[in-house]
Amino acid sequence: MKSLITAGLVFSLIASSYSAQAEEKQSGDLAADIGAVGIPVIAGSIALYKEDYDGFWMFAKGATYTLAATQALKYTVKEERPNGEDNLSFPSGHSSSAFQGASYLQFRYGWEYGVPAYIGASLVGYSRVENEHHYWRDVIAGAVLATTIQYLVTDKYLDSNSVMIAPVINDDHVGIAASFSF
What we know:
Blueprint: H1 2-19, H2 29-49, H3 53-77, H4 93-109, H5 111-130, H6 136-153, E1 163-169, E2 174-180
Antiparallel strand pairs: 1-2
Helix pairs in contact: 1-2, 2-3, 2-4, 2-5, 3-4, 3-6, 4-5, 4-6
Protein name: Phosphoesterase, PAP2 family
Main location: membrane
Organism: Aliivibrio fischeri (strain ATCC 700601 / ES114) (Vibrio fischeri)
């Protein structure tokens, strides 16, 4: 519970720091900024709340590798943004950050956690295109990059009451095997 309170405070500080810039931003920019930070903060907080320290380490590695790969590509490709602001359009950093958190939640804890996070991450990407900060290819590249990296560093979380069901096919029979941990 303490980690959720801490995460909430961090999230509130980040949100309030962006609100000072809100008047200068287009509609959706503030939400994209908050989503790009908030989704990963929530993902890491869930790992800490579950006392899943191995999972938190996987989250941190995914975030670090995603950030490094995104920045390396931005400064290598040097694609101009649709609004002409600068030449750091490809891939979308907001999208890669949001999709990294969403991917971690889905790969580690399942679709119950992943679907809402993927919806939020998709909205982040949509707003970046809608407000002409990125092309669709930038958003898709950020999402694919983050998802791939997180997939490579994340193991499925198995709690103490897990169930595994698998098909069994051999020369003698076809069936289903179930394994329960408690």
